[in-house]
Amino acid sequence: MLDTVREIETPEGVSLRLRAAGALPRAQAWMVDLLLRLVVLFVAMIPLALFGKGGNGLAMLLMFALLWAYSVVCEVWLDGQTLGKRALGLRVVKADGTPVTWLPSVVRNLLRAVDALPGVYGVGLASTLIDPHARRLGDIVAGTMVIHAQELPAGQQVPVLPALPLPHVLAADEQAALVEYAERAGQLTVQRQEELANLLTPLTGQRDTAAIRQLVAHANWLLGRA
Amino acid sequence: MKQERFIALHSREWDGLQSWLNALDRQPKRTLRQEQALEFPQSYRRVCHHLALARGRGYSHEVTERLQRLVQQGHRVLYRPPAPRWHRVAGFLLAGFPRLVRAQWRCMALAAALFYLPALCLVVLLQLRPELAHTLFSSAQLVQFEKMYDPANAHIGRSSGTDLQMFGYYVMNNVSIAFRTFASGLVFGVGAIYVLGANGVLIGGVAGHLTAIGYGGPFWRFVVGHSAFELSALVIAGGAGLQLGLTLLAPGRQRRGPALVAAGWVGAQLALGAFAMLLVAAFIEAYWSSIAALPDALRFGVGALLWLLVLGWLWRGGRAGTRGT
Which of A198, A207, B105, B309 has its CA 20 to 30 A from that of B164? Predict the structure, then answer.
């Protein structure tokens, strides 16, 4: 969805595009983190049981570390990703797109206590649904946001055809539309592909299957293929 | 310039930068020691320039997307946070934290009042009318408190457990309470007010009841050592929560968003300081307060000293002329 993309101008004068991550992938990442931490706790319990009551105290300290410190330490050292976020391809960044630092990470993870409040993350869910950048309350106060770390691949799935130069120069967004059409054509039904291709008959001078082939050939030319 | 020529001219640089950035993800330390690391900032800025050119000249999606990806990856590396410096922790605890507490003195005073007023009132009230204890606590709770501080116990302040076990328990329990107190302050301060008041009533109630039934000796001897750090940390965490909630209610001459972010920074630092204080408190509580054999003079002397230390630290720490700025 286009409207979750936040454009941020860097000091170099180019814009970064941050794609805000919604509640679902974040909940999945949280589940992965939860499972991982439970596994660590249970595995550690086995040797700690040998220490008797003192081991109990060590287990409490471990539980404390997993509950409060795990997310902060992971986010600061692993480039804004806890292990669950890494598995889901998410990343925490500051509002200006730079990697998250200590204090914002501490803020957002302490305020997790508020976001988690009624039942399981009721406040956090409501906040992510209302906020345009899908931030929970902790993110808003910390000045951070959770984004999709992986870039969308572009121009990879365009079928290879002999390149055909365009008869006119097209604007950048028109070129992008043409390439994206060629990329996604494979996911559409033939009828829909033809319907879309026929809109460009003034450009191609063709209809139906021939129009599709010519548009894909133009896309190949735009991508710089021979 | 034609797109093909543009790509032919620069793609070697892009590929070089891309492979260096990919290597950096895999082996950060070794890659940063390479010769290419010195080149990186210039190289990154050139690629930013290429991206702007490619956008402006309307080059195809593939080129702009490729450069965009390279720029995003490079931006993350160039603007990554500096490695944490441990000596700054000492500086913060000695100077920065007390200064921050003083800067927020209104919230701290309010938090202290919310906590100490009900506690002191209850201690006094329960001396005058001891039967009120049964309104505050259930009989099972009263039995438990009385068992913990029975003068006949060998270990005071706990029913069972070793020092290490209790240390872990105190850290987990007290720090979690302090963190939640801070966080719940975001709800217009209501959470922090509730936790402070409720803890004041609880602690005052227990102290008053035990004193009234004649178990005051073991109780006061147990709590005097760690109370300085523990109670001050609770008040500071509550004050941090209060300033967060008050900022949400009345952001002053700022928009609510930036004001909240600033208050969050302050609150996080206060919470971290409170965390350090609670670690000290838990250590004292587990390893010092529980020794039954210490003479009273030593116990109360050390307790008074610790109170003086904490209050003096919060009052004077980080003033001009003291070290650690």
Answer: B309
